[in-house]
DNA sequence: CATTCCCGCCACCGG
DNA sequence: CCGGTGGCGGGAATG
């Protein structure tokens, strides 16, 4: 048994000694302070040093004391043994550092570096098993992607921003914040709570777990799984890693205790029954993940001292995740190298072409380059059909998106199948794609087609089939998809997997706040299990203000329709074989949202960026909202004001969070009213036209009538709720809806005592505080995450190390 | 004793 | 059937 240890130790020593020799790969792990003799890259070395230093400095110090004595004198030669191979020497964290040292943080896009596991294991002298652990979490962050058997592509941190954004969004969509709260609350109550309610809650919240399925959040641009990572069963570690990261991104203090994380990760699926062993295992895994994340400097270990003792926890030290839009801009600007952008755009066009060959993309003039891409894509597509394997990254992604829509499928059966079959995760992607596609759908010139828009919104799930194929064409969504990547939209896509669980919540929230129905929705959501009581109560309180809800199935259904979330969730969950059709339907919803973004990203950015912002933006918003618009008829002048400033953000938000759906409509309305009202009678129509024109699907002059259906349908459900309130009120409501969670949280508003706050949070009906909170939310900037702030942290004391 | 987490058995799966 | 993957949990270091 021990032998291996010795060997390892020895080997390490050897490495150290002969570093000079080993030029090929190894970067000296140990030499943190003493910069290793062989610098692969100046930067990389520095980075390594820095990174290595922080987490393990102490360890190092310890070692030094022990080993240095010998080493100092360079006597070591003979007795390597003394150096303790000690466990730390072999820690995953250290190993990870070594691993990371081998590759540049930001590899030039042009040349990809490949990772061969065999080589790595040799060079690092570790068992393969360990490398898998590292690679898996790196993959969860899209820092690498698997190509084939033992081969991975190294992306470095280029994708990190997108990934984090996406993860954050997903985390928000889910109700992680609430879940965290629940758990904490429970703790207070002393686990075994007296109230039967508790148990019930739990059951309700987490109870149904089937959905929990774990979905892996993917990024559009990243060439994931060529070889198919989707094997679906795997990924648990990857998924865990993503969820873990989500927790950080979502929680306000950005500190997550292992205990809570473990509970949530377990809970999602089956919950409760905290099996002791299960819990223990989960924690073990979390440590593994945490070690890698620490090596990436994304988190660091800390201790939180709550009421009862101090518990191990981790603090997020990675980059802050921007809301969205802004990110997009930044990215686009800053990273010229990022290849994804160009790709994405082209794909879109190409998609559109495929769909509507006749149409040219003349409108796209701006992006002549895109056309090129489109052609390329088309070619690729052919190739793919014949040879699916072809790893064209871009093309692949694009295609994948296509599968989502049935229509698309019909058009490109081969592709679709491949994609579907090949990728389980597709659901997510699909959603994204759908989102993209949906906008495109809009382009359809025919008025009848316009309904397509409506479809996505309300009908999406079931109806999509009924929906005109037009939508499908949107497969181009792939294009939009790509767009997403660049900006931050990618996150939007997030909806996917998490969506199923999460989405429901948003709906519920929205609904709840606005309408009575919401409760019903909530319940539904709850069924899945996540939401326990927390959401309910708060929601309820809010709702209560307005009235006792009626929970009719109808309402719920409506909600579902309106909110894509539910359908998506369901669909998303599993797609294995059938998925295709279902997925397709799901996809639609998101697409609508996505589309708008796309616009922004492309031309808009440049165009609207400033002066026109208001105008253009409004248009864009409209577009976005258009789908949504239907949902909420009311337009608030107030919103407008608010929106304008934040409009950038707003669009993003909409896309990102399911919750935002409600909000989106509002915004759009306002925009429409103010800016584009004259041009378009109803928002949806204007939006459509706008979008279409932008997209190039329809000539500038042509206008498509907005689909009445859409408006009515979506609107109907919510409008009712909203309508009852006064105009001004409505506005607020709209806001509220948007930040349903925030409201809940805000209600407690003054968090004097942590516990007290908590209590209020859950028990207090929205009282007086509600409005203020709303207003706060209205700023839009904060959005979802706000909730976190209020979350009762109780006396949290964080101690580093 | 508690926390951290290494090690590696062994089930899967994809070829 | 084989070799790559990677879930999982015992139990060894460490604190």
UniProtKB/TrEMBL annotation:
SUPFAM superfamilies: Winged helix' DNA-binding domain (SSF46785)
InterPro entries: E2F, E2F_WHTH_DNA-bd_dom, WH-like_DNA-bd_sf, WH_DNA-bd_sf
A Pfam entry, by short name: WHD_E2F_TDP
GO biological process, one term: negative regulation of DNA-templated transcription
Signal peptide positions (record): none
Subcellular location: Nucleus
GO molecular function: DNA-binding transcription factor activity, RNA polymerase II-specific; RNA polymerase II cis-regulatory region sequence-specific DNA binding
This protein's UniProt keywords: Activator, Cell cycle, DNA-binding, Nucleus, Repressor, Transcription, Transcription regulation
Annotated spans, Disordered: 1-87, 525-567, 748-801
Main location group: nucleus
GO cellular component, as recorded: RNA polymerase II transcription regulator complex
Keyword Secreted appears in the UniProt entry: no
Stretches with biased composition (Basic and acidic residues): 57-87, 530-552
Residue stretches making up the E2F/DP family winged-helix DNA-binding domain: 87-156, 232-318
Compositionally biased spans, kind Polar residues: 770-788
Keyword set includes Repressor: yes
Family affiliation: Belongs to the E2F/DP family.
Protein name: Transcription factor E2F8
Species this chain originates from: Alaudala cheleensis (Asian short-toed lark)
Gene for this chain: E2f8
